[in-house]
Amino acid sequence: MKVSQPLLTVNDLTVEYWARRGKVRAVEGVSFSVDKSETLGVVGESGCGKSTLGLSLMQLVPYPGRIVKGEILLNGRDVLRFSANEMRNLRGKDISYVFQDPMTSLNPVKKIGAHFVELIRAHEPKVSEKEAVARARKLFKDVGIQSERIGDYPHQLSGGMRQRVMIALAIALNPSLVIADEPTTALDVIVQAKILDLLNALRDAYGMALVLITHDLSIVLERSDRIIVMYAGHMVEYARSADIFKNPQHPYTQGLLKAIPNVELDEQTLNAIAGSPPDLLNLPKGCRFWPRCYCAKIRCGEEEPPLINTAPDHYVRCGKYKEGE
């Protein structure tokens, strides 16, 4: 039986930022894959490299950052070898991005409809403005916005509606992969749930794959097929969502799970992970998590553990484990 290749395969990706104080490796040696119509969750604290990872997939790492090593294979083609013109054609059409803050991502002096017309006609010049507007109205319906709001300016929409507009722009050209970077930031809990439900529904309706980037492990546990747990630029655990929930192996993942409040309990103690994330310009020797780890040994502060396969489709970067354990 022939096994189809993943939609996206990332091999040994490393991204650096250059600063006056030195070099920061925001993403180091990250490898993973995303299948068609799959949702991959990427979770971790602020500054762990998850947004840089998402931006790297579209070659949008801001200056002074740069991708220094690795492969990003989309349908078997390495996008890191694409020319600037090829990347412009790729973005939006094959792979698109939902940014964290829709207010700063939308042009405040352009009506919402103009954003769609510009995007659609940039990739499909033969499409008339009237046809582009009609497609925009259809997209508005798909994301739950009244079509007459197409004539509004961004400031006239609520935060949740602006986020829906960003999602509609992301799917306008029917891409095979959508990256949603903290899509529920600054939204209330009810609107958050609606946005996440919308992303799932659109994934199923359009047959696209989704990379969901968030700091909230509870979100990706419920809505992802596989999960990457990031810490200080490293991928410390990578497994199916059910395996992360039932058998979290890295102490950091275990700490994140314990920190999720349980609304079914009347009384509970919230468990916080001790300490703070390390300064990426001054990383600890050995394992990057050992200063905060409840089970750290002497060797943890001396040797940096490799990422190893401990079970089928389960990878962890921790000195407690050996290959296949």
In this structure, how is the largest beta sheet organized? 8 strands, mixed
Our Rg estimate from Cα atoms comes to 21 Å
Please state the second-level CATH architecture of the largest domain. 3-Layer(aba) Sandwich
Helix content: 25-40%
CATH names the topology of the largest domain as Rossmann fold
Q: Mean pLDDT, as a whole number?
A: 92
Q: Taking strands numbered 1, 2, ... along the chain, how are they ordered across the largest sheet?
A: 6-7-8-3-9-10-12-11
N-C termini distance: 29 Å
Backbone structural class: alpha/beta
Number of strands: 12
Poorly predicted regions: none
Helix-strand string: EEEHEEHEHHHHEHEHEEHHEE
**CATH homologous superfamily name of the largest domain?**
P-loop containing nucleotide triphosphate hydrolases
What is the CATH C level class of the largest domain, in words?
Alpha Beta
